[in-house]
Design a protein that fits this description.
The protein is mostly helical and about 600 residues long. It is about 40% helix and about 5% strand. The strands form four sheets. It has a two-stranded antiparallel sheet. A two-stranded antiparallel sheet has the order 3-4. A two-stranded antiparallel ribbon has the order 5-6. Helix 8 packs parallel to helix 17, helix 18 runs antiparallel to helix 19 and helix 19 crosses helix 20. The radius of gyration is 30 Å and the shape is globular.
Length: about 600
């Protein structure tokens, strides 16, 4: 018996009846059954009925029946094949080992929850979370019920409910997906503990980032504050940023250890080169914010924001001297990552890779100007003599694939944020440091920050407080810090691009920002070669680190989240590989740790 919804011989007979005429009636009316069948069948499926010469009514009906049977049988076989592809992928994902999801122990270690995220909840006068509010949050997390999160309303902290910021999407931590490894089967290492030297080193770094927001990246080599930051971070006992011969330098400052990240200009070529989006032109310059636009510089303002209040004025003033320019400093990258659509930078990078580094109207828009990955079945140019890539392995495929991991990456990191780590934001840590200065509390902060580093003294001298200056009036988002959503999406999206394009390709005619005109133009870059793979790594690092520079994330938030995003993308590529019909040996890419794999 046929299953419900399955085409059957009965449905074929029904089709013949729907033609509305028998063979005899057709012949008697001067029409042929062949013509009626041809017109009706062609309207439904032009390929169902083909004949070179007139057929009798019975022959036509028989041929149509045979064609329908052949098509139905093939469709049933394909449906079965599609089913097994999906089942096999699901079985493979189910076999992924369940990792241990270990946190850093701070939540159990400190009854006051001093090392954990609590923004948006009700806080006490010294900035510590109300215990009842935190316990209510934990209960909601444990139950995972939407209604229990809704019942947190009485525990939110803003006295002006019109300005209360809601918690950001905790339900995403429990969501499933239909492609890739399930979010609960991926893990990141425990975050640095509140009292650790590693946490102190990361906090010193974000303080230095705040002090250097208005210094151009290309000027770090000669800027005394940048030089002081490099020396200071070099002297800390457990700072894990990239170093040269064991020392942080102005070339490695605020960069990552991934291949290509410390080569050449700070900003990736994929954030500089303008490109086309179809017939539209995409200008990579941004609307720049005014220098010195820092926020949350007094304790009362800081406490109100921790309680979840949106500031009355959320606007950040524009730089009137150079209102539009390329991203040249920490202020600029902070503004970019405040407003971007999370996959935006990688979507534009994909357009750049497809369009090439220049827009040349005399060149066919259908020629790929950056070569595809050597494993592409259509070759580096995207076409053989007889066939061209399109819906698979071509333009539409790439543009879809590069954005597809974004929400999957967010589900993976939201599980880590809410269910596992619940790490406090850097702005909250700065509040602990300031509370100690104001004699409002005592906290186990490592001496690397309190005595070995010079950054607190410089912050106090410049701002009159130990609070971490924020680039956004609202400070961080209302979800836990570890890890960064931006960074997870960055890791996932650039991994897709590294699988699609030849990473070893040297970028022709690289550019850097022209500081002489305030960053409004670009000038040629002279230096070591810049490759597609290296600049994609740098792009991910720029966006992830931009959130740190803004004051809302830590180094490990970015680094570990990029690696998690990479794992999400690799699992998606694994699931996608059996779906293509071309002879295909797999997606090849270089991971952030420098190893090359084929998926």
């Amino acid at each position: 018996m046929n299953e419900p919804g399955t085409p059957s011989s009965l449905s074929r007979r029904n089709f013949l009846r729907r033609v509305g005429v028998s063979g005899a009636a057709a012949a008697g009316g001067g029409l042929t059954l062949t013509s009626l069948l041809e017109s009706s069948a062609h309207a439904q499926d032009p390929g169902l009925f083909r004949t070179e010469r007139p057929l009798s009514a019975s022959s036509a009906a028989q041929q149509l029946e045979e064609n329908l049977t052949r098509r139905t049988g093939g469709a049933l076989q394909r449906a079965e094949h599609a089913y097994h592809i999906r089942v096999d992928a699901a079985r493979a994902e189910r076999r992924v080992p369940i990792p241990r999801h270990s946190d850093n122990g701070d939540e159990a270690r400190y009854a006051t929850r001093l090392g954990n995220y609590s923004k948006g909840l009700r806080h006490q006068a010294n900035g510590e979370v109300d215990p009842a509010a935190y316990n209510a949050l934990l209960n909601a997390i444990r139950s995972a019920r939407f209604s229990d999160f809704e019942n947190l309303a009485p525990f939110l902290g803003c006295a002006d409910t019109a300005r209360q910021r809601p918690l950001t999407n905790p339900q995403s931590a429990y969501a499933f997906d239909l492609e890739g490894t399930d979010s609960h089967q991926l893990a990141i290492r425990p975050a640095p503990a509140f009292a650790s030297a590693e946490e102190a080193g990361e906090m010193a770094e974000v303080y230095w980032m705040a002090l250097l927001r208005d210094v151009n990246f290309d000027d770090y080599a000669t800027d005394p504050t940048a030089q002081a930051a490099a020396n200071d971070l070099s002297n800390l006992s457990d700072f894990r940023g990239p170093k040269d011969n064991g020392r942080v330098t102005t070339q490695t400052l605020f960069r990552d250890v991934f291949p290509g990240c410390t080569t050449g200009p700070y900003i990736s070529q994929f954030l500089l080169r303008s490109t086309a989006f179809g017939a539209q032109f995409l200008d990579q310059r941004i609307q720049a914010r005014a220098a010195g636009s820092d926020y949350m510089l007094n304790f009362a303002e800081w406490l109100e924001v921790q309680n979840g209040c949106n500031p009355a004025n959320m606007a950040v003033p524009t730089d009137t001297q150079a209102p539009v320019r390329f991203i040249r400093n920490g202020r600029d990258i902070s503004h970019y990552v405040r407003l971007d659509v999370l996959y935006q930078a990688y979507f534009v990078a994909a357009l750049n890779l497809i369009n090439g580094v220049t827009l040349n109207e005399t060149t066919s828009p259908f020629i790929f100007r950056f070569p595809f990955d050597p494993g592409n079945p259509y070759g580096a140019e995207g076409s053989t003599l007889a066939q061209a890539a399109f819906g698979t392995f071509g333009n539409p495929y790439i543009m879809t694939m590069v954005t597809e991991p974004a929400t999957r990456a967010l589900k993976a990191i939201w599980f880590q944020k809410w269910e596992v780590h619940r790490r406090l934001r850097p702005e909250a840590f700065g509040g602990r440091v300031e509370a100690m200065r104001l004699n409002l509390g005592s906290y186990p902060i490592h001496l690397d920050l309190l005595t070995r580093s010079s950054v607190l003294g410089m912050t106090l001298a410049g701002n009159g407080t130990y609070l971490l200056p924020q680039a956004f009036p609202e400070g961080s988002p209302t979800h836990p810090s570890y890890g960064s959503g931006h960074a997870t999406v960055a890791g996932a999206c650039v991994t897709i691009l590294k699988a699609m394009f030849d990473e070893s390709t040297v970028i022709p005619s690289p550019m850097q920002i022209n500081s002489a005109d305030g960053g409004q133009t670009l000038i040629p870059y002279q230096g070591p070669d810049l490759t597609v793979g290296g600049e994609l790594n740098k792009l991910a690092s720029n966006i992830a680190t931009g959130r740190n520079i803004a004051g809302v994330h830590w180094r490990t938030d970015a680094v570990e989240a990029m690696r998690l995003g990479e794992a999400v993308a690799i699992s998606m590529l694994q699931d996608a590989r059996p779906t293509c019909s071309e002879p295909f040996g797999g997606f090849s890419l270089t991971k952030f740790d420098g190893t090359t794999i084929t998926v």
